[in-house]
Design goal:
By secondary structure, the chain is of the alpha+beta class. Helix content is 67%, strand content 8%. The longest helix has 70 residues.
Length: 449
């Protein structure tokens, strides 16, 4: 009996020791873990302190390291990396125990069993998990790009709202001067009181519009704050004082070629195709039987009786296996079709955004080089002519309105161009923001497939 207990304890020790075992890493598993750890160390750490002196790049860098959507996408990727280990690991072994008892225990048989998947099954499952992990990485990269774009998309309207307020205040000062001029002309009998009233009406209308713009700034600031990933109870962030404008001219063909190579949405879809390929290989492996091996020892017998056990699954349901293969093949076909559709949509988006940039560029050139200089000159001439009584006050007001509208058109064109440029470079061309928490090289590794 003493020897029986020793054998049982030895078996238990063996099983407990096995619980600390580690399997052999799959191809690409170690590199995936290194990549995930390297990126994870950059999130929500070393965030730039945002101040009045911060630039738009600082705000983008803060957002892509802090925004909850980026953190969520990273967690999904990190989870998929862990799933590689799960997919390539053997099933847990089993400790068995059997006895025969009537009046006394006549047979006592501790045992050990292990399930062994068929040849190639674990490696196929690990390859599928690796491919899925690669797709999750590019989904994370897409979230980073989208977050950076949302910061710029919310910043430029806020910045140009401030510019509109500046223009309106300048125009209010101009209207105050015009009102004073009309009063002076009225006192000398060169103008009617109606001119003073018209100036007051224009000034009050613009004052109300300015108040509305100042009120709407709270909405724009809330959008900018949300784009940075700040919680509602956190302090409002300072807005970068200056905007960065890009005058670069792009070649549309080069942009499309680059986008087809590096756009993270396309890369994620390419990885989904590789995942579907791996799923097909996994489905085909279902034709191979799985095994179980182990044994029991009757410690009550003298001498001990060893009972080896071996079992094998019988994959006889061929229609089920065929359905699994067909489902995987159709999954691949769907992934290929989605990739093709996304490439078409990307080409359309690129054409649209480059057009908007060209359109805004032409509008800005017209306003800056021709319209605004002439509008300012026209207003100056009208004011001088009004002083001498050669033109009606309505001419002065009309020229003032035209100058204001042209200045606002310039601001609107700048806003359109910068938002289109941000969408083109970040979301379409797939150019990552500076210091983004991304892998330095995004090419697909053959050992990850």
């Amino acid at each position: 009996m003493k020897r029986s207990r020793q054998l049982i304890l030895a078996a238990l020790a063996t099983v407990l020791g096995a619980t600390g075992c580690r399997g052999l890493p799959a191809a690409g598993e170690k590199s995936a873990r290194r990549d995930s750890a390297a990126i994870g160390g950059q999130l929500q750490t070393n965030l730039p302190a945002l101040s009045a002196e911060s630039t738009l790049r600082d705000a983008v860098n803060f957002s892509v390291r802090n925004h909850p959507l980026v953190i969520a996408a990273y967690a999904d990727w990190a989870a998929s990396v862990e799933n590689i280990t799960v997919a390539r690991s053997l099933p847990d072994p089993k400790l068995t125990f059997e006895l025969y008892a009537a009046d006394i225990v006549s047979s006592l048989m501790p045992g050990f069993m292990a399930d062994i998947p068929g040849p190639g099954k674990l490696s196929a499952r690990a390859a599928a998990a690796s491919a899925e992990s690669r797709a999750k990485y590019f989904q994370f990269a897409t979230a980073v790009q989208q977050t950076a774009f949302e910061v710029e998309k919310s910043f430029y309207p806020l910045h140009f709202l401030d510019e509109k307020l500046r223009v309106n205040r300048q125009t209010l000062a101009l209207l105050t001067e015009l009102e004073a001029l009309a009063r002076a002309q009225n006192e000398t009998g060169q103008a009617m009181l109606q001119d003073v009233l018209r100036a007051q009406i224009e000034r009050e209308k613009l004052s109300t519009e300015t108040a509305n713009l100042e009120d709407s700034r709270h909405v724009s600031l809330a959008q900018f704050k949300a784009a940075l990933g700040l919680q509602p109870d956190q302090a409002d962030p300072p807005v970068p004082a200056t905007a960065e404008f890009t005058e670069t001219q792009w070649n549309e063909e080069d942009l499309l070629t680059g986008a087809l190579k590096q756009n993270p949405r396309l890369k994620a879809m390419e990885a989904e195709i590789r995942t579907a390929d791996a799923a097909i290989r996994v489905a085909r492996k279902e034709k191979i039987p799985d095994f179980s091996a182990g044994g029991e020892v009757d410690v009550k017998a003298s001498p001990f009786i060893w009972n080896p056990q071996l079992s094998m699954t019988l994959p006889i349901w061929r229609d089920k296996i065929a359905a699994e293969i067909a489902a995987a093949q159709n999954g691949k076909r769907a992934a290929e079709a989605r990739l093709s559709a996304e490439q078409i949509a990307l080409a359309v988006d690129l054409a649209e955004q480059t057009y908007l940039i060209r359109e805004a560029g032409r509008e800005l050139a017209l306003l800056r080089e021709r319209v605004l200089p002439r509008a300012r000159q026209s207003l100056a001439i009208a004011r001088a002519a009004y002083r001498s009584g050669r033109v009606d006050f309505l001419n002065v007001i009309e020229d003032e309105r035209s100058l204001l509208n042209f200045q606002l058109d310039e601001i609107a064109a700048q806003t359109q161009r910068e938002i289109a440029r941000a969408e083109l470079t970040l979301l379409i061309a797939g150019v990552p923001p500076e210091n983004a928490p991304l892998l330095k090289t995004n090419h697909s590794k053959t050992d990850d497939l």
